[in-house]
Structures are given as C-alpha cells and as structure tokens.
C-alpha cells in the first residue's frame, strides 16, 4: 500500500465510471495502454481483482465495488487537500462561487457582497441564482462554496449563519377575485384561479410544498420579479416576499389575502456552507465577516 498512486486510483475510477479502458482513456486524455497498466498495477499492489474483464464491457467485481466506494472518497479528499494547499500558497482564491436563492432580499445580499469583494480585487465572484432546492443541491454537489438561502438546520453536512427573516404574503391584484378579498378566504375558494409558482431549479426536485393548491391550475416563472408582474397584471395570484411588494401593498396595487386559511409564511435567510470540505482564505474571511458583523441584522 505504500506505493499507491493517485494516478492509478483515478484511472481505476474512470474505468469503473466509463465501463471500458478506451472510454476511460479518452475521459482522462491518456492512452489506452497507460490506463490499462495503471489499473493492473493497482490490482497487483492491493492483491485484489478489481475488474471483471470477461465480458464485452469491463465491470466491477464484488471486491472492486467495495474498494471503488472508498477510493472515490479518498480521491475527493485528496483533491480538496490539493485545492486547499493551492489556496494557502496563493494567499487568496482566484474565484469564489456563491449562489443566491429565491428567498433572499436581493438588495441587501448584493450590497453585502459588493462591499466585501471591493476589498479583494484578486478574487472573482462567480454569482449564480437558483430557486427552491437548487441552491443547497449546488452546494452539496460541490458546485458552490457558499449559498444564501434557507437550509435545514438539522442537516449535519451544513453549517449556517442566520442573517434575516423574510415574510411571504399571499396577494392578488384589485379586481382579480369576483368576491371581496378578506382574511377568511379558503383554499377551496381560490382553487378555480391560476396560482403562480416559482420553478425549482434543482436537478433532483424535492417533494416540498410551499402552499401550492392541489388540483388548481398553475403557471410557473423563474423568479419573484416575473411572478410579481404576472400578479400585478391580474394573470395569477401567489405568495411574494414582503420586501418586494411594500409599495404595491401600501398604494393598493396588490391586496393581501393572508388569513387563517391561507397563511403567509416566514423564511430564515442564512449563509450556508459545507462542514465537510476545506475553505480557502477568502471564503473564511467572508464567513467571519458574516458571523461577526451580523451584516443584515435589523
């Protein structure tokens, strides 16, 4: 085991994923013989037959399947370690990947990021917008360093800093309903009317239901700005963040129908990151800034 090479593990991982030496070689931009030799060397060092080569496509043996699961973990950890060493050597990350979720108060979050990155010109902010389950999925899939969104506080893989609370209000435009809009409106009364909902950008959508009426006609939009426009034009009804519709509620262009039957809801916006991966100096500085300054308090 002393002579185990990361190169050999990566070749074995590629063959297991691609199903052939040729496909693995293409994926790794290496020659077929070099990949074949790497896997053979790994099997010899381990004293295990990792691959069954008797079929048209190579497949994992039982021992190979068990070893592959551990090898993938080791490869990821070594890649994290190499990335962290590079970040420490350079002093700063060249890029920080941040995802804003649909529950975020955009002006406050964007202002916070603008102030922070103004003092770090060597680090480029790569900013994405995702909805519903998308932000946390990107984080768990290693496609983001930090997200600003809601998150399950009991998830052991995540750590969070609560930043602010955002109230969501169910609203309609004047004249949208053929009856008086009041606090006693029931879901049954709203079922005939189109409900506007945000599309989930997660590749593996969850079954979470944010007061979507079963059986009601719905239309989907990519963000709350588009949702607001549809509701203002009397094309649908739905829940919108209070920070986005303060003026419209005040001047009567939107009417709240929140009540005991159709409640509003409050979401806690948090900065969220993985517990189980290293974070570079700039990511740590941003985390400390959020934790120490309570940047969005009040």
From TrEMBL:
GO terms for molecular function: DNA-binding transcription factor activity; transcription cis-regulatory region binding. Belongs to the LysR transcriptional regulatory family. It comes from Mesorhizobium plurifarium. Residues 4-61 form the HTH lysR-type domain. InterPro entries: LysR_HTH_N (IPR000847), LysR_subst-bd (IPR005119), WH-like_DNA-bd_sf (IPR036388), WH_DNA-bd_sf (IPR036390). PANTHER family: HTH-TYPE TRANSCRIPTIONAL REGULATOR (PTHR30126), TRANSCRIPTIONAL REGULATOR-RELATED (PTHR30126:SF88). It holds the Pfam family LysR_substrate. Coiled coil: none annotated. Keywords: DNA-binding, Transcription, Transcription regulation. The keyword DNA-binding applies. The keyword Transcription regulation applies. This is Transcriptional regulator.
């Amino acid at each position: 085991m002393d002579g185990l090479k990361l190169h050999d593990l990566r070749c074995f991982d590629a063959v297991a994923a691609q199903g052939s030496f040729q496909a693995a070689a293409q994926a790794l931009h290496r020659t077929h013989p070099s990949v074949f030799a790497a896997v053979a060397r790994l099997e010899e060092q381990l004293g295990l037959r990792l691959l069954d080569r008797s079929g048209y496509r190579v497949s994992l043996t039982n021992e190979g399947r068990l070893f592959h699961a551990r090898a993938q973990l080791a490869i990821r950890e070594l890649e994290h370690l190499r990335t962290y060493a590079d970040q420490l050597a350079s002093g700063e990350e060249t890029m920080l990947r941040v995802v804003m979720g649909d529950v975020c108060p955009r002006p406050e979050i964007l202002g916070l990021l603008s102030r922070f990155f103004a003092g770090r010109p060597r680090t480029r902010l790569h900013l994405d917008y995702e909805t519903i389950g998308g932000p946390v999925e990107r984080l768990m899939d290693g496609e983001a360093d930090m997200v600003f969104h809601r998150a399950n506080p009991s998830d052991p893989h995540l750590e969070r800093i609560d930043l602010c609370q955002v109230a969501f209000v169910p609203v309609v435009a004047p004249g949208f309903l053929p009856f008086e809009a009041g606090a006693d409106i029931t879901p049954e009364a709203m079922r005939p009317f189109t409900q506007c909902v945000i599309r989930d950008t997660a590749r593996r959508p969850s079954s979470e239901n944010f007061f979507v009426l079963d059986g009601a006609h719905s239309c989907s939009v990519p963000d709350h700005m588009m949702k607001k426009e549809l509701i203002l034009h009397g094309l649908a009804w739905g829940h919108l963040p209070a920070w986005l519709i303060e003026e419209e509620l005040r001047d009567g262009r939107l009417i709240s129908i929140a009540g005991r039957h159709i409640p509003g809801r409050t979401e806690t916006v948090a900065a969220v990151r993985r517990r189980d991966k290293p974070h570079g100096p700039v990511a740590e500085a941003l985390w400390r800034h959020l934790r120490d300054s309570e940047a969005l308090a009040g």
